[in-house]
Amino acid sequence: MTSAQLLKTSPEESAFGAQPSRMASTGVVLGSSPPPAAVWPPLDFAMGALSCCAACVFTNPLEVVKTRLQLQGELRARGSYQRHYRGVLQALWVVGRTDGLRGLQKGLSVGLIYQGVMNGVRLGSYSYCEALGITSFHGGSLLSGAGVGALGALIASPAYLVKTHLQAQTVEAIAVGHQHNHLGVSDAFVTIYRRDGLIGLWRGVNGAVPRVMVGSAAQLATFTSAKDWVSHSQWFSPNSCLTALIAAMISGVAVAISMTPFDVISTRLYNQPVDEFRKGRLYHGFSDCLLKVCQAEGLLGLYKGMGPVFVRLAPHTVLSMLFWDLMRQQTVKNNQNQGRS
């Protein structure tokens, strides 16, 4: 039996639960997870956005630290630069002591915009793929996750650009990477637009799209598979929030491991300075950045900030997927109750 052929033991449904599947000739009920009960698409988009925004409020300080660690020692050999940040906890302490508590939430407002737009599009589109039955095919979850991730990253790229600039920005004593010195979110958007035009707001998108494609494919495919596995193991009662919680924890580990190198490249491309011809001064694109990082910093350079990436992505994935799953379950339940009444 392949991974796509899961044994169905429960007739219960949830937002990601199983529905009746076809009978094999052997008499065993087989088939991959069919589409979930339908949720009105605009509402599903809103729930995806809301769930990830709620998670972002808790994990944004780790995003600030991750950005600083990934920019520290940019294109310099290990040991040839001053290390302001030496780990997750020490970096949080340095940022909090130097920039204050507000410094730990730098870029939060535009981060919420990014999370709302990107994940609203991503999770809402994934639900639509499920409703169409695309995810029920072998590899469907992986391809759907990658596709909707690319779409969300493309649309929300300007917000991620500004977020990266603001989170890298700090006082000279602990500054790393290029300092853009924006006065705030609106000033950043206006400055970039006036200097580079509309296309300048999408600078770095060539790094963002593969980053989110990989992360989204890993997150959604592993979350769906893990949730099916936990449900069929019958460890908890049907529709228990613990099922979604365990699945989200497994998904968080997969995302952190697969996404970190792409995350480093994306951060570098977004934060690099530009010349008078509106071209990046450090990197010409994704592959150029990949080669330069490996040559100057070694393969481990692609895993800079792995600690905060994992510490941030794991709880962010757990919180966002848990919130999303619970909201969808409640919506489906309300729709079923209304249908009976």
Automatic annotation (TrEMBL):
Q: List, alphabetically, the Pfam families matched.
A: Mito_carr (PF00153)
The record describes its membrane topology as: Multi-pass membrane protein
Q: Which SUPFAM superfamilies match?
A: Mitochondrial carrier
| Entry protein name | Solute carrier family 25 member 34
Q: Which family does it belong to?
A: Belongs to the mitochondrial carrier (TC 2.A.29) family.
Superkingdom per UniProt: Eukaryota
Note the segments forming the Solcar repeats. 39-132, 136-229, 239-330
Say which species the protein is native to. Perca flavescens (American yellow perch)
Q: Which PANTHER family does its entry note?
A: RE38146P, SOLUTE CARRIER FAMILY 25 MEMBER 34
Ordered alphabetically, the record's keywords are:
Membrane, Mitochondrion, Mitochondrion inner membrane, Repeat, Transmembrane, Transmembrane helix, Transport
Q: Which Gene Ontology CC terms are recorded? A: mitochondrial inner membrane
Q: Which InterPro entries match?
A: MCP_dom_sf, MCP_transmembrane, Mito_Carrier_Antiporter
What is the taxonomic lineage of the source species? Answer: Eukaryota, Metazoa, Chordata, Craniata, Vertebrata
